[in-house]
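Posted in: Structural Biology > Protein-Ligand Complexes

Title: Requesting predicted complex, nicotinamide-adenine-dinucleotide in pocket

I'd be grateful if someone could produce the 3D structure tokens for the following input. Sequence and ligand are given below.
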Amino acid sequence: MKVLVTGGTGFIGSHTCVELLAAGHEVVILDNLYNSERSVCDAITAIAKKPVQFYQGDIRDRAGLDRLFEAENIDAVIHFAGLKAVGESVAKPLEYYDNNITGTLTLLESMRAHGVKRMVFSSSATVYGLSATPPFKEDAPLSVTNPYGRTKLMVEDILRDLCAAQADFCAVLLRYFNPIGAHESGLIGENPRGIPNNLFPYINKVALRQLPELHVFGNDYDTPDGTGVRDYIHVVDLAKGHVGALRLCESSTGATAINLGTGTGYSVLDIVHAFEKANGISIPYVIDPRRPGDVAVSLANPDRARQLLGWTAHKTLEDMCRDGWNFAKRAMEA
Ligand code: NAD
Ligand code: WQD
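-- Reply #1 --
Done. Output follows.
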């Protein structure tokens, strides 16, 4: 298939482009480079040994989208583009609704005008909020606690309504758990600007000695060591899940939510110790109070992904720590 990948130069998008090319698909990237760089296309090409087409543009630009769909014969869209920082979304809700909701609506309208009827959407485990009991099954109650999460749930609802109205539309709503790591080549990975919000990039900055110590947000949760437990998934495993989702969209219609997680939980201190062991670098830390909005445990039930996509995660926590650091030590130092 010829696949439009919005946000394709970003962290998860770039890894997905590599896997799509390896599976024989053609890839067209649309990205406004708000949180990524043009050079990522060269890295994707270097890894996959196949070209990608790149359009610099914004998903909110209807005329630009129309030109793209007229020039390319797109079979399906994998939609990563959007803003993703929880804390920032509380401070800047209008920017989040504009990018993530208006942007998605504009994209869907342009798709409709050009007869494109398949979308794989980047949703998030954040839609399970505080009301579900881990490990989360896709039919668990959904709730959200911040504007970012609300944009993910709203787009899920929009796609469910669209599929109800348009019987030949397929939407796969992939709920990612906690993607970390990087491609083993070290050519693509995650390099957030400024002080990272998320655990793994923060640990990388401490390992580089660019930050003095990790702040562990709470050690009084009801978990084995008191620190928060998450379902960390290697970004290459996550990327491979999109190839399966595309296959599902080729052969079915309707809206289907699917967790992409491993089903195994690790605490903050598990991650610290695994990183230290895999890379031989000490990670000093201090215990701070809990971060508002955090849950004790977030864990996927990955059964549906296995059944519908024939997909399971294979990489280990050691792989995640080694590959993530292999990328970060070059990218973050530069
Ligand atoms: P990222 O920021 O690395 O990638 C997103 C890309 O979209 C960037 O390259 C950015 O430049 C681009 N973009 C943003 N707004 C755009 C717009 N209006 N028009 C065109 N391009 C735009 O983020 P990521 O970690 O790769 O996440 C990809 C998707 O997965 C996002 O939708 C995110 O919400 C979702 N997600 C991420 C995680 C995570 O932990 N990384 C977890 C769950 C869901
Ligand atoms: C992981 C664990 C923290 C930083 C977020 C979004 C979610 C999804 C993935 C997009 C928690 C602890 C963290 C630090 C710490 N993104 N921590 N010190 O919160 O599970 O999920 O990213 O959809 O929507 O909410 O990920 O990496 O921020 O935190 O102790 O400096 O690490 O408390 O237990 P989270 P995270």
